[in-house]
UniProtKB/TrEMBL annotation:
Cited Pfam families: adh_short (PF00106)
Family according to the record: Belongs to the short-chain dehydrogenases/reductases (SDR) family.
Organism superkingdom: Eukaryota
UniProt protein name: Uncharacterized oxidoreductase SSP0419-like
Organism of this sequence: Galleria mellonella (Greater wax moth)
Listed InterPro entries: NAD(P)-bd_dom_sf (IPR036291), SDR_fam (IPR002347)
Length: 255
C-alpha cells in the first residue's frame, strides 16, 4: 500500500499567500515536498515559506506574481524547473470571488474572475505538461461546491469555477495516455472563508454561529479537512483517480 510521501517531489502551489493555498502549501511541506509558492502578498508569502521550510528542510521558491499578467505563467514554470529541475504536482489554487448577481454584474468583474479562475489554471497546466509527462505527475484544480448548488449573488464566480471543473473532466482523457492525472477538489464553506464574509459584510446580526447553524452539518469545514484532501488527491494513493471532482462540503451541496 502506498502512503503519502512527497519527499524529492516538486509541488507548485498558486494562491499560496493566503487561504486554502497557504494551508495546502504547509500540508505538502509536512510530507516533505519541495515547493514553489506563488502569491501576490509578499509578507504573507514569505511567512508561509518560512513555515514550510521548517517542516520540509528545503527553502521554497517564492514568486511574487499576478498570474493574469502576460508572461507570469511562463515565469512560474521556468523558474521552478530552473530551481528544482522538475515538476511533479501543480496545484491551481489562485482564484477570485466577487459578489455579483445577474442584475448587477459587469464585464470587468466577469473577466477578472474568468481570467484568474479559468484562463490561468488552463494555461499553467498546458505549460507544465512537458515536465509533468517526464515525472508522471498530476494537476489538482481547486474548484468550489458552488458548482453543485445555487448560491445567490455569485453568478460569474460560479460560472468560472464550473468551467474549471469541466476543463478537469475533458483534459483527463487527453492527458491519461501520457501518464498525467488531473483532478479537482471542491471545498465547501470553511471557517476562514465564513469569517472573511462576516468581516466584509460587516453584518453584526450574522454572527459566526448564526451562519454556521444554516449549514447541514451545523459547522463550517476545518481548513485541515480541505487541504488534506488536496494532498491525498495529489499523492500516489489513488493512481486511477483521473478527471474526478471530489466535493468536501459537509453536504452543503444538497441545500
Amino acid at each position: 500500500m502506498d502512503y503519502i510521501d512527497f519527499k524529492e517531489k516538486v509541488v507548485i502551489v498558486t494562491g499560496a499567500s493566503s487561504g486554502i493555498g497557504a494551508n495546502a502549501a504547509k500540508a505538502f511541506a509536512v510530507y516533505g515536498a519541495r515547493l514553489t509558492l506563488v502569491g501576490r502578498d509578499e509578507s504573507r508569502l514569505l511567512a508561509v515559506a518560512k513555515h514550510c521550510e521548517s517542516w520540509s528542510k528545503t527553502e521554497p521558491l517564492c514568486l511574487l506574481l499576478d498570474l493574469t499578467q502576460p508572461g507570469s505563467c511562463e515565469i512560474v514554470i521556468e523558474k521552478t524547473v530552473e530551481t528544482f529541475g522538475k515538476i511533479n504536482v501543480l496545484v491551481n489554487c489562485a482564484g477570485k470571488r466577487i459578489k455579483s448577481s445577474m442584475f448587477n454584474t459587469c464585464m470587468k468583474s466577469f473577466d477578472e474572475q474568468m481570467n484568474i479562475n479559468v484562463r490561468v489554471p488552463v494555461f499553467l497546466t498546458k505549460l507544465a505538461l512537458p515536465h509533468l509527462i517526464k515525472t508522471k505527475g498530476n494537476v489538482v484544480n481547486v474548484v468550489s461546491s458552488f458548482t453543485k448548488r445555487y448560491k445567490e449573488d455569485y453568478v460569474p464566480y460560479t460560472v468560472s469555477k464550473s468551467a474549471l471543473k469541466k476543463f478537469t473532466n475533458i483534459a483527463a482523457p487527453e492527458l491519461m495516455p501520457h501518464g498525467v492525472r488531473i483532478n479537482a477538489v471542491s471545498p465547501g464553506i470553511t471557517k476562514e472563508s465564513l469569517t472573511n464574509d462576516i468581516v466584509l459584510r460587516s453584518e453584526v446580526t450574522n454572527t459566526f454561529e448564526a451562519l454556521e447553524s444554516q449549514l447541514p452539518s451545523g459547522a463550517a469545514l476545518e481548513m485541515k479537512d480541505v487541504v488534506l484532501m488536496i494532498v491525498m488527491v495529489a499523492s500516489d494513493i489513488f493512481p486511477n483517480m483521473n478527471g474526478s471532482n471530489t466535493c468536501i462540503d459537509g453536504a452543503t451541496c444538497m441545500m
